[in-house]
Design a protein that fits this description.
single chain; two-stranded antiparallel sheet; mainly alpha
């Protein structure tokens, strides 16, 4: 991760570098790389000790500082707030919830499809509130 950040940092010097739109693009690339497989590791990340989350916070802070073209003395909270970057643990938890909900909806859709095939009428109804076929 740090090597990718260093490579992107060459394109984004703090002084007289690219504009905010281009900086945000680089930040989104880094966030996409970090959030790969987030639904899998997000559960453990939320309850991880500070020693585990510190490198992630340091990396996100470095990216946010590049986006806002700030000095290195800016805190993590200030840098991520000014860069409009949600904290990665929150984003990972959100992606996990979305993944779980999509999996749940696919399961319900599969049940509906099986029921409509069995009935032969093509009229299967499902209550998505309860998740039960009616």
């Amino acid at each position: 991760m740090a090597t990718v950040l260093r490579a992107l940092s060459k394109f984004m010097p703090n002084l007289r570098g690219p504009g905010e739109r281009r900086r945000r693009l680089y930040a989104n690339v880094m966030t996409s790389v970090v959030m790969y497989a987030a639904p899998v590791w997000a559960g453990g990340f939320a309850s991880a000790p500070d020693a585990v989350t510190r490198p992630w916070r340091r990396l996100q802070r470095a990216i946010a500082i590049r986006v806002i073209a700030a000095y290195r003395t800016v805190s993590y909270d200030a840098a991520t707030l000014l860069a409009r970057m949600p904290p990665w643990p929150l984003e990972a938890a959100l992606r996990r919830r979305v993944f779980e909900r999509l999996t749940e909806l696919k399961t319900v859709a599969t049940l509906v499809e099986k029921r409509t095939r069995r009935s032969g009428t093509g009229r299967g109804f499902c209550s998505l509130d309860s998740g039960k076929l009616t």
